[in-house]
Amino acid sequence: MNLTKHLAGVVIASTCLCAPALAQTKLTMWYHGAGNEVESRILNQIISDFNTSQSDWTVTIESFPEKSYNDSVAAAALAGNLPDILDVDGPVMPNWAWAGYLQPLPIDESEFADFLPGAKGVWDGKLYSVGLWEAAVALFARQSTLDELGLRTPTLDKPWSREEFMAALDAAKASGKYEFALDLGMNDQAEWYSYAFSPFLQSFGGDIVDRSTYKTAEGALNGEAAQAFGKWWQALFTGGYAPGTSEDPADQQTGFIGGKFAFQWNGNWRAVATMEAVDDVVFLPAPDFGAGNKIGAGSWQFGVSAKSKHPEGAAEFIKFAAQDKYLAAFSDGIGLIPPTPSAAQMTKNYKDGGPLAVFFDLSKAQALVRPVTPGYVVQAKVFTKALADIANGADVADTLDAAVDEIDADIESNGGYGHR
């Protein structure tokens, strides 16, 4: 009898000890980074820290390959099987919000007041997503190349003008030292074209779509400024300044390092590897083609699915993950920009005086998010095809007019995508 009572007491005690874990409500999360060991390790550590930091929620993660991720989300949305927390590419977020995949974050936007603009996903005046890192593009060069060619080193306060930029390419081409003056990474015909090249168009004064209404691309993508951009863009290839769409993909990884190119338009995710191989590499701001110097903004972010039964728990996780120590960990791990100044100071590369601190400044001063519209997912594909066709010799005016017609037809067929 005493033994029975003792065993019963042990069972009761064990049940009590387990109660907090059993009380935790499960939150599901989907992530696009399957196969990326560094990202996954850091994110899994954040999840583990969150799960043990409180007794209300426990997050479980399922990772997908990036190439199939968006399709998986769309299929799950149709089936009503979305998780609580979604990973979403910044420029795609408005489409998912409009389509009913996401709900506004139940978090006061003031909590992210220090975040770089590109790390915050805003649609229709509401905050839907927040990123744990940001990315930026710069013109890679060697200081020795600038010196040998007698070129002024551009700064954020005084970037190269269009004329200076072309003079730099002419000087590099005339030197005979390089296979091409400039590498643009033309082989990558995915999101790279709209992210990396639409800022050139915007610096000319054009855009992918008219942002004043988001109801047409007329005038923005085929107006006078866009025509000037298109002619300049085509001349980069017909003039032999840059390799075209048949460029070897390996060149974006090693071409500049190996001395094949004098200049390279590339992202900060390639900066660490380049610094390790090129001791005098410098990262220069985008040229100003007349309407200001601009680069792209907006990277992967976290949001709460519209079907989540526990949006408050999902929001608690997102706030937890957005702590400076985790922003700094991602930056040190994958080389991207921490989205807050305080997190930047905790990193080896982006703190004041750090070798990549310039990218934080570039992002803060030059960055422009891609068109904030559900129609962007179509517009980006149309823009990419138009730029590839122009690079391959297509008539500039006809190609841009055709792109406008395709974009406008899509906007009309989708009822204006909710733009009023």
TrEMBL record:
One Gene Ontology term of the molecular function aspect:
maltose binding
Domain of life assignment: Bacteria
Some GO term, biological process aspect, for this entry: which one? maltodextrin transmembrane transport
Which UniProt keywords are present, listed alphabetically?
Periplasm, Signal, Sugar transport, Transport
Q: Which residues form the signal peptide?
A: 1-23
Question: Which Gene Ontology cellular component terms are annotated?
Answer: ATP-binding cassette (ABC) transporter complex, substrate-binding subunit-containing
Under CDD domains, the record lists:
PBP2_TMBP_like (cd13585)
Pfam families recorded? SBP_bac_8 (PF13416)
Q: Which family does it belong to?
A: Belongs to the bacterial solute-binding protein 1 family.
Q: What is this protein called?
A: Multiple sugar transport system substrate-binding protein
Organism annotation: Mesorhizobium muleiense
